[in-house]
Amino acid sequence: MTTSPADPRERAAGRAPRRALVAGSVGNFIEWYEFGVYGFFATIIAANFFTPHGGTEIEGLVKTYASFGIAFFFRPIGAAFFGRVGDRIGRRPTLILVLLLMTGATTLIGVLPTYDTLGAAAPWLLTLLRILQGLSAGGEFGGAVSIMTEFAPPGRRGLYGAWQSFTVALGLLAGAGVAALLATVMSEESLGDWGWRLPFLATLPIGLVALWLRLRLEETPFFRAAADGETGPPPGPGAPSAAPERVADPREMAAAIVMGAARIMGWAAAGYTFLVVMPSYLQATLNATFQQALVATVVANAGFALSILPAGLLSDRIGRRPVMLTGAALVAVLAFPLLDVLQEPASSAWVQGAAVFVAGVVVGLMAGPGPAMLAEMFPTRVRYTGLGLAYAVSNAVFSGCAGLIITEVIKRTGEVDIPAYYVTVTCAVSVLALLTLRGENHRGALPEVARAGKAAETEEETPCA
User: Is pTM, for the whole model, over 0.90?
Assistant: First the structure.
């Protein structure tokens, strides 16, 4: 058999999609590992930084989740800034910069002096580091999903994009697993004194591995084609191009971002309520122990992880809309019954475990197809910015504020069903937004250019900058 000189390049090109999955996923894993750890240790962080001289547990949680929410509101700023950079200079260098910022900020939390050591400056420094994490997290999603979907083989965008959500589950599971392990092997006093720092410090070696992977990453063929001024799909096999979403000026761009945020609103709200806020809710409201709350969260995240990739693959076959609609509708219908099971003292541990597992599964139905759905809404030249902003806005409002809203409303009203009300309303809005989604977007290629009016008939392109 004769080997042509082009074969090594062809083999390298064949490995590029797999490298894109790994390099894109690992930064996302770090992001959600840290966000999970922060949520799981919320009561301990509150005691160390926000209520050093007493105060009720619920008051400390409100302050901790306020810091949590502030970081989320910087995610859209990060998405806009890094998205603009990524759409101009490339996905690869921007994702490397984002990873360095994220790893550095997370590691510094692990060495940050507490209120007892530093005084009133401690909670402000913690909040500053959370802001830096928010900026980097805002730039992570758009780049990672762009990398994954632009490298995806024909008919596999849903599956490739689902890896972004799958690493969310892996990150949350890793955070919960580490928290549960430390709570088991350490005394409560040691955990609250210094043990909580260990999961944050563990980010540094993980980040170094992620940096090595991203340095070996190639730029996507879609971005290279757009940078070279090509208007068609990049060379190579692919499906016929779908009609591009018409996002040709700032108003249309803004409308697309708002619509994208609405379509994933239920995913954002239900995901954080069931997968991150749950431990503190169970402890502060239902008097569960720290270990019981963490076990429940691990089970919920296991259900979430198991459903994501099948949901993404199914969306490649039948479309994003039916899979995501099913997930949003099921959350809205099942929220109150699932919460009733957790609140019922007579419920066995097995029944409660099944309830939180089901909650994770139905959220995964939205999270699996979600990244590919957003990528298909925006053309190459603004994809990083557009899908990143849609995701960041939705998460800033409906994820970052989930813990604060739920905890504060329960504190003021004493109504323990607030989590169910929250996810039901947000998923109902997502159902309405998803009904506007075109059913055939998953079959064609990613949109290449955005053009206004009849400009498609001319040689001049109008990118939605």
Answer: no
